[in-house]
Design brief:
Elements (H helix, E strand, L loop, with lengths): L3 E4 L2 E4 L4 E7 L9 E6 L6 E6 L5 E3 L7 E6 L4 E6 L8 E9 L7 E4 L3 E6 L1
Length: 120
């Protein structure tokens, strides 16, 4: 069993930055692919970024060049650095573990989510 706890969300002005953290419990963190989803009101949930156990990354086109996903296996934590934030980045961001696909039910574990609000 893996527990994921997100932190770092909040309110920021457009153009600003936030760093989300996801602390994971469990012994197999380093072997898991980790990811971040987001869901804005009235919109479908979107896979924002993913990082494999070997460090291979994927980004949605909507965040490419602005967001960076990284992991610290020693701290069993995955990060999402978000720069040049836009109002359309406003969403609940959820951390996921042990999966690959673009839908949350293709991942084994997910956190409760953290709210990110970007004001214009």
């Amino acid at each position: 069993q893996v527990q994921l706890v997100e932190s770092g969300g909040g309110l920021v002005q457009a153009g600003g930055s936030l760093r989300l953290s996801c602390a994971a419990s469990g012994r197999s963190f380093s072997s898991y692919t980790m990811g971040w989803f987001r869901q804005a009101p009235g919109k479908q949930r979107e896979l924002v970024a993913r990082i494999s156990s070997l460090g291979t990354t994927y980004y949605a086109d909507s965040v490419k060049g602005r967001f960076t996903i990284s992991r610290d296996n020693a701290k069993t934590t995955v990060y999402l650095q978000m720069n040049s934030l836009k109002p359309e980045d406003t969403a609940v961001y959820s951390c996921v573990a042990s999966g690959y696909g673009a839908t949350m039910n293709s991942w084994d574990y997910w956190g409760q989510g953290t709210q990110v609000t970007v004001s214009s």
